[in-house]
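Hey, quick one: can you model this chain's 3D structure?
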Amino acid sequence: MPKIIAKVEGKGNGIKTVIVNMVEISKSLARPPAYPTKFFGCELGTQTQIDKKNGRYIVNGSHDGDKLQDILDIFIDKFVLCDECDNPETVFLVQPKREKITSTCSACGHSSLIDMRHRLSTFILKNPPEGDDATPQKLKKLKKEKDKNAQNGDTSPTDKDESGFDGWSDDLPTANKTNVDEWSTDTSAEAVRQRMSKLGVGVKGLTHNEDLEKSTEERFQIFFQFVKDKVSENNISDKEIVAEADRLDMKDRAVLALAEILLDKDILTQLPKYRVLFLRFLATNQKSQKHFMGAFEILVGQLHKNDLLPKTAKILSTLYDQDFIEEEVLLEWGSKVSKKYVDKKTSEQIHSKAKPFLDWLKTADEEDSDDEDVEVVYTNRTEEAVLKEEEKKKKEAEKAAQPATENNEEDDDIDIDDI
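Sure thing. Here's the predicted structure for all 419 residues.
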């Protein structure tokens, strides 16, 4: 299957995303191109435009190819792959009157029902694949082929078992009534976690979840435990952590959890190690940077006071040099003692240790301000080229002055001879 090529067109309210190669993708999946296009609309909560004549398949809004690719993976899992063998060679048998869609695998012969609760299933019933008008006949033909293979000793997972169920009947036999629950969705916390783990990173942020209805503290604890589990499993994925923070609406406060879990008395060596992850939250986000300064106070003033308090200035310098915290935020933090994260006495101690660095930062800032009166000429040339040009001009000036001096000397000689 080719990778999705998405092209954003228009602007403002008319912005839309054209899936350039949707026809090629649908051919590789053996599904009409309208199906995955409509699936995008269902998952993204937006309208779609399907122009079969011109081969244009459009999703309203601006969406990048990676996000659409993640959603397409879910479509493949739900509407293409065989439940039994995970083979993509399946065909749809649509029965609008019975409001039933059956997916049959050409490889293993397994037959399963498509989940009719999804909005795309309703669309498929109203728009069955072309040539599937005689689906009951196709169903019978496939059943005959399966029975013929069975007579030849070739069995499949859908052959009749001792209960008499052959995988084709509309109703399950009495002995298997307990299996009806297999078609319903398990809503337990563990089942939800497993389903979420199968989703692409981009889709997790789009999926509605009940966690958003919880308090800020509860959502923070969920995120904290998520990161802690990832660290204990030695499976730290920047993308997954960012996606989970997005899902829980914790982008600003996430650094509090990350700092407590990932940083300790060896913070000076750990900051470069986790720099990329932290910058995903801190870059251009001053609110998150202020929370990080709170985490810094907790680390230095509470958790590892004996080890880190003497190194306060060095740690702040590292945070500044590696772009964790902007100068404006550092100066604002240094201007007042707060008891929001640690007690006032501890905060005063931290600020006292930070004073050398803060003074340097203020001085550097003042020197920059003084330099504003100096005329600065910007050039694309190297310093060496500029120096060479200045030296050349200097020599030319000396050379220009030299003839005048010589003329004066000659005049003096002439005057002397005349005398």
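One thing worth noting: Residues 1-80 form a domain with the Defensin A-like fold (CATH 3.30.30.170).
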